[in-house]
Design goal:
There is one protein chain. The chain is of the alpha+beta class. It has a single domain (28-399), classed as Orthogonal Bundle (Cytochrome p450). It contains 17 helices and twelve strands. The strands form four sheets. The chain has a five-stranded mixed beta sheet with strand order 1-2-10-7-3. β1 (29-31) and β2 form a beta hairpin. α4 packs across α13, α7 (115-131) packs antiparallel against α9 (144-154) and α10 packs across α11. The longest helix has 32 residues, at 229-260. The radius of gyration is 21 Å and the shape is globular.
């Protein structure tokens, strides 16, 4: 397991050979530096995502002490209050109730109605990139599109949108392995500021509801159930963070993969009908969320190894998406791959609610760049962010 080192620059540049070693060495591995059990195979990850003996939280059943864990430091409380009331980090019955209520506002029709806005904005961003003769695909196209879309959906005024991406980045820093105290400080500060902002915006929408998602969340009710204010705030933050972190990184990781596979880029330029399957393959090939954690609520067994209650499992999405038991020649980028059961959107009760919107955004962005910048090329080699869990770039300089 020596090749698996999530703090090593060479590993971060290309973790996939290390994953192949992990898969060859077995189905589950204890990793002492993070006190986690690593699961690298697609079949096991897929099954465990649906296994109710695992949970994103354990606090619906155990205290920290009963579970053999230490409570977070009191100074981290604003982050945990924000994080722990979002449906991604809840289990039934709270998860079921909140997801049902959010789904009443976040409907397929709501998402589909955004398509013209997404396509128009993607076109405008691509046009600006062309007019400038190139630029940074990350800051000029990949970031502005999903941030604007989810802000539009939530009803956040344009004048208020500048802090959204920095707040999100600071909060998401806590999802990395063994985050530093400085990372925690920044996450707490962002949590406080974002919460205060949303509390005021929700108060305004209570007085004057609109057609936006926040107004929909306020109105959503089912058999007398309503979202609490904290649940609404946490849901908005989750939708923003999940709604753009994966899309931003999928866009940049994806175009970098295309530049390194010119035959596939040429095929895509020749046939734009490949865009939907290209989106799926690029999410598989260089997965934006490499790892997803679950707590073991009751002892489980994986391939003859008992993993006890109180342990933490790290499901390696990036490895699962390169498992040769499921994907033919997984190390190759094949935009026309006919069967692509990648798990980049997770599975089970925590399957990504925003997957349809992400697909619209990624497809619109790709089509706009193919149409308006047919000679798009890499201007300089990018630097990877020093992150493992959320995989992305510092930037991606391109020429048109």
């Amino acid at each position: 397991m020596g090749a698996f080192d999530p703090w090593d620059a060479a590993f971060l540049a290309d973790p996939y050979p290390a994953y192949a070693e992990l898969r060859a060495q077995g189905r589950v591995h204890y990793f002492e530096p993070t006190n986690q059990w690593l699961v690298p195979h697609h079949a096991d990850v897929s099954a465990l995502l649906r296994d109710r003996r695992l949970g994103r939280t354990y606090q619906h059943r155990f205290t920290h002490e009963e579970f053999g864990r230490t409570a977070p430091p009191p100074e981290h409380e604003p982050f945990h209050t924000l994080n722990d009331h979002g449906m991604l980090d809840l289990e039934p019955p709270d998860h079921t109730r909140i997801r049902r209520l959010v789904s009443k506002a976040f409907t397929p029709r709501t998402v589909e109605q955004l398509r013209p806005y997404v396509e128009r904005l993607a076109g405008e961003l691509a046009d600006r990139l062309v007019e400038a003769g190139g630029g940074d695909l990350l800051t000029d196209v990949a970031e502005p599109l999903p941030v604007a879309v989810i802000a539009e959906m939530l009803g956040i005024p344009e004048a208020d949108r500048a802090p959204l991406r920095p707040w999100s980045a600071d909060i998401c820093g806590m999802y990395e392995l063994n985050p530093s105290e400085e990372t925690a400080r920044r996450a707490v500060q962002a949590s406080v500021e974002f919460t205060e902002y949303l509390r005021e915006l929700i108060a305004e929408r209570r007085k004057a509801p609109g057609e936006d998602l926040i107004s929909g969340l306020i109105a959503a009710h089912d058999e007398g159930d309503r979202l609490t204010e904290q649940e609404m705030i946490s849901t908005c933050v989750l939708l923003l963070n999940a709604g753009h972190e994966a899309t931003v990184n999928s866009t940049v990781n994806g175009w970098y993969a295309l530049f390194r596979n010119p035959d596939q880029l040429a095929a895509l330029r020749a046939d734009h009908s490949l865009v939907p399957s290209a989106v799926e393959e690029l999410m598989r090939y260089d997965t934006p969320l490499q790892l997803f954690e679950r707590w073991v609520l009751d002892d489980i067994e994986v391939a003859g190894t008992t993993i006890p209650r109180g342990a933490e499992i790290a499901m390696l999405f990036g490895s699962a998406n390169h498992d040769p038991e499921v994907f033919d020649t997984p190390e190759r980028l094949v935009l026309s791959r006919p069967e692509n059961p990648h798990i980049s959107f997770s599975a089970g009760i925590h399957y990504c609610l925003g997957a349809p919107l992400a697909r619209i955004e990624l497809g619109a962005s790709m089509k706009a760049l193919l149409d308006r910048a047919p000679a798009l090329s890499l201007a300089e080699e990018p630097n990877r962010k020093p992150n493992f869990v959320i995989r992305g770039m510092e930037g991606l300089r391109v020429s048109v």
